[in-house]
Design goal:
The chain is of the alpha+beta class. Among the domains are: 49 residues; 176 residues, Heat Shock Protein 90 (2-Layer Sandwich), CATH 3.30.565. The chain contains 13 helices and 10 strands. The chain has a 5-stranded mixed beta sheet, sandwiched between helices. A 3-stranded antiparallel beta sheet has the order 6-7-8. A two-stranded antiparallel ribbon has the order 1-3. Its EC number is 2.7.13.3. One of its GO terms (molecular function) is phosphorelay sensor kinase activity. It holds the Pfam family HisKA.
């Protein structure tokens, strides 16, 4: 509740916000110690009434329950330390959460300011830039958090239930202008080639835009200024193929081939780090895992003289029923 109200309080009365923030933190709830919970359960069992004729059975049952309860408590405590065998994943989840929280507050305040009337045009322009940058970084952190969450889950059953038939045309109509604007800021040109009729695909409506945006962002970041990129969407049997490739002529091919690719270093199990720009992004395996979670498949091929070509396959509506086993086999090969 305080997170929902803090932005409005900060905007209307900053002095009161500091005082309230300190008061709220003093009453911040803490998780009870497991020994307190276990002792309470034992005392509660000790006060259970005993029925006539079942005294001996009740005593034995009570001892069995107490012993079972104690074992369950110990197992739960041990699972807290063994559930995430990789500390990198835990650190990534904490990092993504800590970055998203203040950015969400900044974006909320920015949007409240944009609702005010009689703002100068230059102020509105800068506030919109802040809102856009916050949204992009929040979406990036959401992808990092989601990738870490997938690594901690034992199976993909939880994610497969979120797949549903959706209109890819609506996603692309909202995403293409943002992709082109982001490419132009890097002095790149991005064209999108779409068929006249886009079929309905099966995926996760919430995550598909974020995953595709993250893929295109990482792809464009590795290209030299002045490059020309094309996104092609083509039906391919019972799937829809989305291909991302650089378009270069004979003169541009020499420039691309002589261009030194950015240095990328592994950062833990899921991330890549570019020292030149300080950019952190998901590695290829984590990106493929994300596409699998939303029902798709990512293939990366290296084309001589032209660099990487990325191909994404998404199942069409109805294909998951007609060729479910075939699609699952394709997932297992990634």
């Amino acid at each position: 509740a305080w997170r929902a109200l803090s932005a409005r309080v900060m905007l209307s009365n900053p002095d009161l916000f500091a005082e309230l923030e300190e008061t709220v933190q003093s009453y911040y709830p803490t998780a009870p110690d497991y020994r307190t919970v276990m002792q309470f359960s034992q005392l509660l069992l000790a006060e259970l009434p005993e029925q006539e004729g079942t005294r001996d059975w009740g005593l034995g049952t009570r001892e069995a329950i107490e012993g079972s309860l104690e074992q369950e408590q110990k197992a739960e405590i041990n699972s807290c330390y063994s559930a995430s065998p990789n500390p990198d994943v835990e650190m990534l989840q904490a990092f993504a959460h800590e970055v998203r929280t203040p950015l969400t507050t900044i974006r909320t305040i920015t949007r409240l300011l944009l609702k005010q009337r009689d703002l100068p045009s230059n102020v509105i322009k800068r506030l919109k830039v802040i809102d856009r940058e916050c949204t992009e970084q929040i979406d990036r952190m959401e992808l990092l958090f989601r990738a870490a969450e997938l690594e901690t889950s034992a199976t993909d059953k939880a994610t497969s239930t979120q797949l549903t038939a959706m209109s890819l045309e609506q996603v692309l109509q909202a995403s293409i202008p943002r992709w082109q604007e982001a490419a132009s800021r890097r002095n790149l040109k991005l064209d999108v080639v779409l068929p006249q009729d886009l079929p309905t695909v099966v995926s996760n409506p919430t995550m598909l835009d974020r995953v595709l945006t993250g893929l295109i962002e990482n792809f464009t970041r590795n290209l030299p200024a002045g490059s020309h990129i094309q996104v092609q969407v083509i039906p391919a049997g019972d799937q829809l193929k989305l291909q991302l490739l650089p378009l270069v002529g004979d003169n541009d091919a020499a420039i691309v081939s002589n261009c030194t690719p950015p240095i990328r270093k592994a950062l833990g199990q899921l991330l890549m780090f570019q020292p030149e720009t300080g950019t952190i992004s998901l590695n290829l395996n984590a990106t493929k895992h994300l596409f699998q979670a939303i029902g798709g498949k990512l293939i990366v091929r290296e084309r001589p003289r032209y660099g990487e070509v990325l191909t994404v396959f998404l199942p069409l509506e109805g294909s998951e029923k007609q060729g479910n086993s075939k699609f699952k086999i394709q997932h297992s090969k990634v």
